[in-house]
Amino acid sequence: MVSSDERVVAVIMVGGPTKGTRFRPLSLNLAKPLFPLAGQPMVHHPISACKRIPNLAQIYLVGFYEEREFALYVSSISNELKVPVRYLKEDKPHGSAGGLYKFRDLLMEDDPSHIFLLNCDVCCSFPLPEMLEAHKRYGGIGTILVIKVSPETANEFGELVADSTTNELLHYTEKPETFVSDRINCGVYVFTPDIFTAIQNVSSQRKERANLRRLSSFEALQSATRSLPADFFRLDQDILEPLAGKKQLYTYETLDFWEQIKTPSMSLKCSALYLNQFRHNSPHLLASGDGTKSATIVGDVYVHPSAKIHPSAKIGPNVSVSANARIGAGARLVSCIILDDVEIKENAVVIHAIVGWKSAVGRWSRVQGGGDYKAKLGITILGEAVNVEDEVVVVNSVVLPNKTLNVSVQEEIIL
Predict the structure, then answer these.
(1) Left if phi > 0, otherwise alpha if psi is -120 to 50, otherwise beta: which for 158?
(2) Can you give the residue ranges of the Mannose-1-phosphate guanyltransferase C-terminal domain (predicted)?
(3) Which of left, alpha, beta for 245 (phi over 0: left; psi -120 to 50: alpha)?
């Protein structure tokens, strides 16, 4: 059981505008963590999962976006969940461990016994209370959420080897060139405050090496281009790799879903995963309808209360319809995200696509992708304020904001 005097804080790394270029054009005018998946901002899913942690004192979002980009959301989510959520802006990228270390004094104000660290661009069921219980049994300074993947895709992530009996982390390597293991790091951790000592030790060792090194001017120049800033610490290479095999770190394996959200295509896949999760934990968020007084709903569908959908439309499966969207008579939506203020006109079809804010899809038009979430043009994306005129077909294409399409296009990036 959890002791009543224990307190836990959670830190969610949200990154910043220098990253997320692969998420364009959807991140041109919106911070990537606020992009909606299953009708909720991306960062909302890990935040709401943190609410299930016993004795949670505070949630911190750490990144280097401007504070104003998160101010409104942080205020509303704090009120909604009745848990303080605070955004902490880094002056520059410090790395996943460095960002944690920079704010260590603030994080320790609540005198927490445990600190959760989550990456925002991860989609999973976030079994945080279960991780915490396992972590306490293990007795180390940290526990990593891991999942089994296919050997062909493992090298895209941090691969690790754990003891099959004790779950101790024995070996860790980030994106290895040769196959090490089909268990990978999910980017979700729980630590004791001893993690700060571990980061401090890395910092001290780095300074010692720098002081001991006597280099020629040429070697110094070469080394400077390779060395990291003194206050930049990567959790994987700088902390996990050296501590593996020292009875300090352990693993907790999830058998549920897990994906990384690096591209718009993956956001569409993850939206479907979260919609499916709603069916089990939050069925009240899912729409229903049989085509009489309201639209026909097939499978898992989220519809914002302010959206207007004609009763003859057919929606689903795996569809999210955002605020003030208007879906016309006879429209058909499958596996898509419809963003705020979009109009889908009569008899239009949208399949495997993301339709950007304030865009319009004309009568009898079709906006469609192939549904290969890993392909560069696997889905169709319309940026903000794109107008697809009547009877135009857009297939496997990306259209940047403020464009009007009056001819059909296929497998094109329209700048």
Answers:
(1) beta
(2) 297-414
(3) left
- Give per-residue pLDDT as tens, 228-244: 667 788 888 888 888 88
- Give the ranges where 180-302 is alpha helix by DSSP (H): 194-212, 217-226, 241-243, 264-281
Domain ranges of the chain: 8-260, 264-414
Cα dist from 13 to 61, 184, 304, whole Å: 6, 19, 27
Residue with tokens 């880094």: 90
What are the start-end ranges of the E strands in 294-363?
296-297, 301-303, 308-309, 314-315, 319-321, 326-327, 332-338, 343-344, 349-355, 360-361
The CATH number of 264-414 is 2.160.10.10
Are 1 and 18 a contacting pair, CB within 8 Å?
Answer: no
Best CA proximity match to 239, nearest among 100, 97, 116? 97
Encode pLDDT of 47-86 as tens digits: 999 999 999 999 999 998 888 999 999 999 999 988 899 9
Q: What is the pTM of this model?
A: 0.90
Q: Which of 175, 199, 178, 202 is nearest to 189 (CA)?
A: 199
